[in-house]
Specification:
Arc Repressor Mutant, subunit A, mainly alpha, 6 helices
């Protein structure tokens, strides 16, 4: 096998990150779906909207925050709009753009689902880290993200 230039410990950490992330996302999604009828990507969109000023974000901004392509977000928002959790409104200043807004039903669904999600994050992730380990992990991930993005945007 050709040398990768990365030592075994770092390569193991990389593989561990990938496998653990996939397993965590799968488990958190399963629990939200089973207990709340809410897929994890929907929860994330509701959370981003809830954190935004007036519960609204431009579709492009929401796609970036939710780590989705614009077309992927459009399909997701179509389904969420059909479920009454969000609504889309045309952007007055840009006819091509639109806003996605959290509805009262979406806000309630987020509030009801939050304990399930937080419980899962604690059970499968947070409880395995000391406060110092969590700080170290956060710092390391922030450095990596800044390098990949080429900027200093927060996680």
């Amino acid at each position: 096998m050709a040398s990768t230039g990365i030592d075994t410990d770092r390569l193991d950490a990389w593989r561990g990150l990938l496998v653990t992330h996939a397993a965590l996302v799968k488990r958190l999604n399963e629990e939200l779906e089973q207990e709340m009828g809410l897929p994890l990507p929907w929860y994330e969109v509701l959370l981003h909207l809830n954190e935004a000023q007036e519960g609204s974000l431009r579709m492009g901004d929401l796609a970036r925050r939710a780590l989705l392509t614009p077309s992927g977000l459009t399909r997701l928002v179509d389904r969420m709009e059909g479920a009454g959790l969000v609504e889309r409104k045309a952007c007055g200043s840009d006819r091509r753009g639109s806003w996605c807004t959290l509805t009262p039903a979406g806000r309630k669904k987020l509030k009801d689902a939050a304990p399930v999600h937080v419980r899962g994050v604690d059970q499968y992730f947070a409880r395995h880290l000391t406060k110092d380990e969590a700080k170290t992990l956060s710092k390391a991930l922030a450095k990596m993200l800044a390098d990949v993005r080429g900027d200093c945007q927060p996680l």
